[in-house]
Design brief:
By secondary structure, the chain is α/β, with parallel strands linked by helices. The chain folds into 2 domains: 124 residues, Aspartate Aminotransferase, domain 1; 252 residues, 3-Layer(aba) Sandwich (Aspartate Aminotransferase, domain 2). The protein has 12 helices and 13 strands. The longest helix is centred in the N-terminal third of the chain and has 20 residues. The radius of gyration is 21 Å and the shape is globular. The two termini are 29 Å apart.
């Protein structure tokens, strides 16, 4: 592919160290973690422990055993939401959520949970006062995205975490678009539950994710079975992290995730943020100069994640994406981005929008190539 601008879906390319780590785990280790006392199995177990410690350090988690490896952010969110909420209880969320939050909450509703969806403004921002206003004595969970996958809007999660703690309600934060890009410290912020993927800003392979659970947060497991220990007990272990890690872990994926997280730590969140912020600025300035383009999300000059979404008057977003791919070799995302409620909120439902998401390895030349292509596409439509 010539120009890849869909890093909000999956970061590409990966650091070379990630490719090497996956290959090493497959070729040189081979064994299953926690499934034997021989050298290769012990090496696999040690690698998983080191990966857990690396992620814990990145997110300010003091006890790494509270961090669970999953197959994706989606699995992590399902584990937290479906495992915590019971019929007759109440949950709070926003109208800017991804379907990985929306659908588990909808399933919880069908099982007797009441869900309040707090409306965000047209830029995608959530007012913490609106969250505080809907909290009740039976509220058991607040579930919110940190950074919108549609607009890049960054929510005030620290402020919401503070009011949630004051009300005795755990805050679940979906960091799919912020992990590896924005500073996140669960100990300082008071975030009780953190769910994220490994394959986006953390630079790891697909099929990886994680869930952090603060002390005292104990959702029912989604899956039970072999954990490598406690074999005589027919009940699922209560010890962390084994309670939520049934089945053989994805060692090559976790090895790659460890390498990706180490790349993020070595490069520095500030440096990554600065680089991607400059690319986003080029996108916003360039698109704003094309007649008919409508930018969505935070105003220019307002902090946002690594995402720019736009529409063009009189043009189908899907056709723009198709043309960019077919005629220019440029990869972007179009449509509803698995977040229809967010598009209702910003006024782009049902067609959706064109989403452009540069990554750390994107170049300024690639941004300029995209902008030139957009100028030709829009100019051609006006002829």
């Amino acid at each position: 592919m010539s120009v890849y601008l869909d890093n909000a879906a999956t970061s590409y390319p990966k650091p070379e160290s990630v490719y090497r780590a996956v290959d090493h785990a497959l070729r040189e280790i081979g064994a299953s973690p926690g499934r034997g006392g021989y050298h290769a199995a012990m090496e696999a177990t040690r690698l998983v422990f080191e990966a857990r410690e690396t992620l814990a350090g990145l997110f300010g988690i003091r006890d790494s055993s509270r961090l669970v490896f999953t197959s994706s952010a989606t699995e992590a969110l399902n584990l937290a939401i479906c495992g915590l909420l019971r019929p007759g209880e109440h949950a709070v969320t926003s109208t800017m959520e991804h379907n990985s939050v929306v659908r588990p909450l909808h399933l919880a509703e069908r099982r007797g949970v009441e869900v309040t969806r707090v409306t965000c403004d047209r830029r995608g921002f959530l007012d913490p006062r609106d969250v505080a206003a809907v909290l009740r004595s039976d509220t058991r969970l607040i579930a919110l995205t940190h950074c919108s996958n549609v607009t890049g809007t960054i929510q005030p999660v620290e402020e919401i975490a503070s009011l949630a703690a004051g009300a005795g309600v755990p805050l679940l934060v979906d960091v799919a678009q912020s992990a590896g890009l924005l500073p996140i410290d669960v100990s300082d912020s008071g975030i009780a539950i953190l769910a994220g993927p490994g394959h986006k800003g953390l630079m790891g392979p697909p099929g990886t994710g994680f869930l952090y659970l603060a002390e005292g947060i104990d959702p029912a497991p989604l899956v039970v079975g072999g954990t490598g220990g406690f074999s005589t007990d027919p009940d699922q272990p209560t010890e962390m992290p084994a309670r939520y890690e049934s089945g053989t872990l994805n060692l090559p994926g976790i090895a790659g995730l460890k390498a990706g997280a180490e790349f993020v730590l070595g490069t520095g969140i500030d440096a990554i943020r600065k680089k991607e912020g400059e690319l986003v600025g080029l996108l916003l300035d360039g698109l704003a100069g094309i007649a008919g383009v409508i930018l969505h999300g935070p105003l220019v000059g307002t902090e946002r994640g690594g995402i720019v979404s736009f529409t063009v008057e009189g043009m189908d977003p899907a056709m723009i994406g198709f043309t960019l791919d077919r005629e220019y070799g440029i990869c972007v995302r179009t449509g509803l981005h698995c977040a229809p409620e967010a598009h209702h909120t910003i006024g782009t439902f049902p067609e959706g929008a064109v989403r452009v998401s540069p990554g750390f390895f994107t170049t300024e030349d690639e941004i300029e190539t995209f902008l030139r292509a957009m100028e030709r596409i829009v100019r051609g439509s006006a002829c």
